[in-house]
Amino acid sequence: MPRTVWSGAISFGLVTVPINVVSATEDHSLRFHQYHLEDMGRVRVRKYCEAEDREVRNDEIGKGYQLTKEQVIPISDDELRDLPLPTAKAIEIEAFVPLESVDPIRIGEGYYLQPSGQVAHKPYKLLAKALGRSAKVAVAKYAWSGRERLGLLRVRDDVIVLHAMRWPDEIRDPGELLPPPVELSDEEIEGALALMDSMTREDLEGAEFQDTYTEALEQIIEAKREHREPPALPEPEGEPGQIVDLMAALTQSVQKARAGRGEDADIHDMPKKTTKKQPAKKTAAKKASGRKPRRSA
Question: Is the pTM of this model over 0.90?
Answer without folding.
Answer: no
